[in-house]
Amino acid sequence: MKTKCIGILSSGGDAPGMNAAVRAITRSAIYNGFSVKAIYRGYEGLITGEIEEFKTQNVSNIIQKGGTILKTARSKEFRTPEGRQVAYETLQREGIDALVIIGGDGSLTGARIFGEEYNIPCIGLPGTIDNDLNGTDTTIGYDTALNTIIECVDKIRDTATSHDRLFFVEVMGRDAGFLALNSALASGAEAAIIPEDQTDSDQLEEFINRGFRKSKKSSIVIVAESPKDGGAMHYADRVKNEYPQYDVRVTILGHIQRGGSPTANDRILASRLGAAAIEAILDGQRNVMVGIQDNDIVYVPFNKAIKKDKKIDKGLIQVLNQLSI
Ligand code: ATP
């Protein structure tokens, strides 16, 4: 069956650059003769039928905007076979015969299951600030979030220096340390505590033992949020108990990291990946995520993209330690 109408949705956590992706997918689709339907609130919109036809002007003036004009949601119903059956019926009713999903690993897991259960080509775009999808060097929103973090850390540094304080700054990333490690490098922080290094050593003890106070009066440690051990608060409590001589503070950056106008890198990435998603549909591909490797577009099977084992370059920890003496 030849594809005529492409449905687009954004799902899971929002990420800056999702709008640039929506624009690119819509315009490339129309350019190639497809019609486009926007599905609102992620998979939820497939269940409630909140869907609208998009023309080129629907995506005017959005490339620079954070968030997602399609809205996003976490849909419990889509996790059930009954919910996905309703979603499929909606697609049939709307005449949508291919789907492009912008989201993180949960959203692409949903796409994988849906694409296997029903005869509908699903193409994924990596849209998450966490950069935790395999098979792509970077994800839409990651660069913007990194830049937001370093802007905040620069400000925290001013007050940390003035008071000679040790700051633990908690950043997002769920089970991945990409944001923490790279924002630490980019902001000149003294250390990063990341989940990928957790099993190897007591990162706090190592940091204290390096004697950061010998040459510096203040210090900033970037901590990846960690549902397992409590993140920055946990380390601040430990310092209070184990090293009471230090004046400790905690800043949790929270949802600030998700907002804001996307950087040039994220806009370019989203535009390229969006256009490549339509190429994939034209080529008859299905169940793949569009990614970027060494500046080339790649198509990664969902199974591989969502494996949750994206390698972080631990050599960067060494670089960080060297540069923070
Ligand atoms: P982020 O990484 O930014 O949090 P995400 O895409 O990983 O984004 P999730 O909340 O994990 O966010 O997933 C988004 C949605 O994808 C879920 O609300 C659900 O509708 C769908 N989804 C996730 N996992 C599954 C699954 N195993 N089966 C079906 N649908 C799923």
Overview of the structural elements:
The mean pLDDT is 94. The chain starts with a strand and ends with a helix. It is built from 11 helices and 11 strands. α4 (105-117) links the parallel β4 (98-103) and β5 (122-126). The chain has 2 domains: 5-141 and 262-305, Rossmann fold (3-Layer(aba) Sandwich), CATH 3.40.50.450; 143-258, Phosphofructokinase domain (Rossmann fold, 3-Layer(aba) Sandwich), CATH 3.40.50.460. The strands form 2 sheets. Strands 3-2-1-4-5-10-11 form a 7-stranded mixed beta sheet, sandwiched between helices. Strands 7-8-6-9 form a 4-stranded parallel beta sheet, with helices on both faces. With 325 residues, the protein is of the alpha/beta class. Bound molecules: adenosine-5'-triphosphate. Adenosine-5'-triphosphate is lined by residues 11-13, 43, 74-75, 78-79, 103-107, 109-110, 113, 128, 130. Adenosine-5'-triphosphate (ATP) binds next to α4.
